[in-house]
Structures are given as structure tokens and as C-alpha cells.
Amino acid sequence: MEIVIFGATGGIGRALAQALQGRGRLWLTGRNEAALFELAETLGAEAEAMDLSDETAVQAFLAEIGPVDRLFYAAGAVFPAPLARTDREAWERTFTANLWGAFLAMKHARWGAGARGVFLGAYPQRIALPGLGAYAASKWALEGLLTVARRELRGVRLMLVRLPAVATGIWAPFGGPPKGAMDPEEAARRILEAVEAEAPPDILEL
């Protein structure tokens, strides 16, 4: 089984990679090159650091793998700021991590028979908050993209995971995760349980 994890150095991506060790050949990507290769060595996985804005790099990476059986898109970013102070760079970095990379993964993956893809989203009503305009827009756009992709990519099961607060590094700009945030390992366990079900849901709400 060929298993790909985008964003493997993030909290949920790392937890997924660790839980998937031994289930097939693992292919990992991430922004933190040192952490990525250390994780890959520990798990006996393949790894490639890449810029998700680079379509050629993503295409070449997925072409090297061949038919993908399981793809997990766990990359993500948030740069909180009021709309009046959100600059183009922050907007583009947010959309690259949360949406553009997911689009490239769907576009260029050679999906194997019975393949399944998992994309991390959010509860729309919980992220409609001041300072999260770019983040909310990118996550809502991801839901729309997946709705269309399900109709185009016949034979592939694509699952959106609406996440509650999970104790990962994405909360660093806010001073850390809120009290009671879910552990990444618990999130990974529930995601894997759902994706391996006989009929995975289109939307998994944790």
C-alpha cells in the first residue's frame, strides 16, 4: 500500500505517520526539513521537503510514487489578522497551505483502485471569527473543492475532516491550544478508523 502524508511534520500529520507505520510504504512531505527527515528515518519512510506552491515539485513527487492508495492532506497554516491588516503575503501563504496544495494533491495523484483521500478542514461556524478571514475563506473553499472533486474523481473516496480544537502548533499565534483541546493522537486514531471503514463518510466531524 502506498500512503502519502502532506504536512507530516505538523501535529496531526506526525500522529498519522506514526500510527501508519508498518501499514504500507510511507511517503512524507513537510515544511520543516530537519524534522521531516528525522521522522522519516525513525519510521523507515520516504521523505521529500517541498514548497506546496510549486506545482511542478508536487507533480514530480506524486509521479514518483505511482498509484496512491491512501492520501492524507494535513498541511495547514493560519496568520491571524484583521482584514484591514491582512496583506497579500499572509493571504497567499494561508491559501497555499490550506487550499492550493490540496488542489495539487487531488489533481496530480495517480489514484489506485479503491483509493481514499483525507483532507483536514474545520467547523465553518467555529472559525467565522475576527482575525480569521483568510483562514476561514480557505477552509470553506476546501469544502467546495472537495464537493466538486467527488463528482469528478470517480472511484476515489474523498473525506473531509471537520476538526475541533486540536493541541498542535497551529495554535502558537494564539498563545497555545485552548483548554480541553483534543490530542493529535486521538484525532489521528479517529480519522484512521473512519477512513478504513467499509463506507467512509464524505464528512467526518470529530
Automatic annotation (TrEMBL):
- Asked if the keyword Oxidoreductase belongs to this entry, the reply reads yes
Could you say which protein family the record assigns here? Belongs to the short-chain dehydrogenases/reductases (SDR) family.
Q: Which GO terms describe its biological process?
A: siderophore biosynthetic process
Q: Which InterPro entries does the UniProt entry name for this protein?
A: DHB_DH (IPR003560), NAD(P)-bd_dom_sf (IPR036291), Sc_DH/Rdtase_CS (IPR020904), SDR_fam (IPR002347)
Say which species the protein is native to: Thermoflexus hugenholtzii JAD2
UniProt xrefs under PROSITE patterns: ADH_SHORT (PS00061)
Keywords in alphabetical order: Oxidoreductase
Domain of life (superkingdom): Bacteria
**Would you tell me the protein name for this molecule?**
NADP-dependent 3-hydroxy acid dehydrogenase YdfG
Single GO molecular-function term? 2,3-dihydro-2,3-dihydroxybenzoate dehydrogenase activity
